[in-house]
Write a structure and sequence with these properties.
mainly alpha; about 90% helix; elongated
Amino acid sequence: MMMIMMVMMMIMMIMEIMMMMMMIALFHPQLLLLQVNEAKKRLNAINKETIAAIRTKQAAALILTKEAEMVKYMMEEGLLTHTDAEDILEQITVDMKLIEKKRNLIFK
C-alpha cells in the first residue's frame, strides 16, 4: 500500500513538472527554444561509438528479457523441466548483470 502511494505521489509530481513546462512553453517560447537547442548540442556531442555501444546493450537486454519470458512459458507448458528452466534463467540473470555492469562503465 505504501509503495502504491509513493508511486502515485511521484506521478503527481511528474504531472506538476509537465504542467510547469507547458506554462513556460506558452509564455516563454524563447526559453524553450534555448533548452531544445542545448539538448541538441549535448546529443550531437555524444561519441557515435558510445551511441552504438548503448544501442547494442539495449538490444541484448531486450533479447535476454524475451528469452526469459519464453523459458518461463516453456516451463509452464511442460516443454522444459523446472530444473532446466532454472539453469537457463540463472544464466540469463548472469548475462543481464554483465550487460548492466558494462552499461555503467560507459557513463563513467
